[in-house]
Write a structure and sequence with these properties.
Elements lengths: L4 E4 L4 H7 L12 H6 L4 E6 L2 H9 L3 H11 L5 E5 L12 H14 L3 E5 L9 H10 L2 E7 L8 H13 L4 E6 L6 H14 L4 E5 L6 H11 L3 E4 L13 H8 L10 H15 L16 H4 L3 H13 L6 H14 L9 H15 L7 H8 L11 H11 L17 H12 L6 H9 L4 H7 L28 E7 L2 E7 L5 E5 L10 H4 L10 E4 L4 E6 L6 E2 L4 E7 L2 E6 L4 E5 L6 E2 L4 E5 L1
Parallel strand pairs: 1-2, 1-8, 2-3, 3-4, 4-5, 5-6, 6-7, 7-8
Antiparallel strand pairs: 9-10, 10-11, 12-19, 13-15, 13-18, 14-17, 15-16, 17-19
Helix pairs in contact: 1-13, 5-6, 7-8, 8-9, 14-15, 16-17, 18-19
Length: 592
Amino acid sequence: MPKVQLTDLVLRDAHQSLFATRMVTADMLPACEKLDKAGYFALEAWGGATFDSCIRFLNEDPWERLRALKKALPHTKIMMLLRGQNLLGYRHYADDVVAKFVETAAKNGVDVFRIFDAVNDPRNFKAATEAAKKTGKHIQAAISYAVTPFHTIEKYAELAKQYAGIGADSIAIKDMSGLLKPYAAYDLVKAIKKVTDLPIEIHSHATTGMSVATLTKAAEAGAEILDTVISSLAMGTSHSPTETMVEIFKGTEYDTGLDTGLLLEIAAYFKDVRRNYKKFESSFLGADTRILQSQVPGGMLSNMESQLKEQGASGKIDEVLKEIAVVQKDAGYPPLVTPTSQIVGTQAVFNVLFGRYNRLSGEFQDLLAGKYGACPAPKNQEVVKKALEALKLDKEITHRPADDIPPEYAKLEEEAKNLLGTPQVSVEDVLTLAMFPKVAPNFFKKRAEGPVVFKPEPELSPAPGSGQAGSGQAARYSVNVNGANYDVVVAPAGTVAVSPAAGSGQGPVSSAAASSPAAPSGGGAVINAPVAGTVLKHAAAEGAAVNAGDTVVIIESMKMELEIKATSAGRVRFLVPPGTTIIAGQPLAELQ
């Protein structure tokens, strides 16, 4: 076995970082025969945001993807990224759901469980690690890396020792934002090697331009496994090129033994595939050293750009990046990795749009209250007080958060049966609904239609000097309306065709979204949407009397929940039904 092995992330983190997790399984399978021959330690292919993206945007069953990849990769271990007690969702789940998910993932094809917790709370590893141990699969406990006054090499080494004690088979350093500097990596690996003899894997994004040097120094310090990405999907917010690392180590004691010729064939394939996803590409393609301050993970950058566009605030990204550092400090310096990256990032957007902490997302309230576990550092108590008041709690939670969650799998199974209208449901469908209860119902309705298909955008030849498409050609445009992407085709005869963009998640317009919103009567105070998003539910009954400050509507914006409160007392009249896609400033209700 080579002294250094590589895990390629081309099937998961590469496209999550570069084009918002949009790669479909059909674009992965043709490369699998060669990927399987390459000789990797593993291929990271599942978990992270892939599950969400499959059902939200691609109309793909993520479990079918896992089974198809397992069949196509018989000689290579499949790794998944698992968020500890959060699994793949944005909340903690009961221990019985965690156990069922891990067991089912193992049966469907996962060989390596890379388990992490966003705040590095070892208590949040317990259920997932115990479940993975029962499957006999490889358990890799990951340390979420951050650079703050409270994250030191000594504390990271102590974490590694604790993770070894709970049954890990290897340790990963998960550097989500490219913050791990080369010499710091060397010292960190050396420190961990002093407290455990478990293999160490290094995961470091290329966002800040340091990753190739970081992987090299980590290998010199004794790291046995390195995460890379085939070159055509490498760098930018992705990772170091696989071929580059192979060549750096070739002929040395760290020689990986991988065939560069075969790797170049794989790279050529994915170079062509990447053209299919040009519309989703992040503009962060080089080295962005602003991340050294904001610490935003690579996978979050492209999503944050699109989210700001939805809010009509694309010009505020630099302001938001600066605000993230403030919010992270006030929240007790949680490492920025899903879900904390989304929670902190969305709160930073709200702070920029509405003033600092004038509006708190439900998830940010939970983070401050300790519902995600213990953050590394003391929090801003003034903000904590706001969160506790909103949650009607007397004090922060200090025990393991999952201890408050009773077994819930049986209840979720009944919900799935009722939703699908069948006496029996698969475990996979129950877990899909559990992970994303707001998205899964629509996916189940459309699943039979099959996955979306992406094709390269046609290159148009404008007529000289006209600025328009050439004679006889259709002009194609991508237009964003109220946060939804549409493909617009203008034919030479002047006819216009408009359709939801492939992968936009729009699909057929729902009856709720299609219905015309009721107009304010003009006789009372109007409650407007502060941001673009989706109406999740009405928090009061139609016609109910509410007081100023009462929650009237709950919306989802940027994957976070936001309570919209009454501005005065009155009887509420709703203007839009749940499920409606809304724009900032749109009237939601009025008080009469």
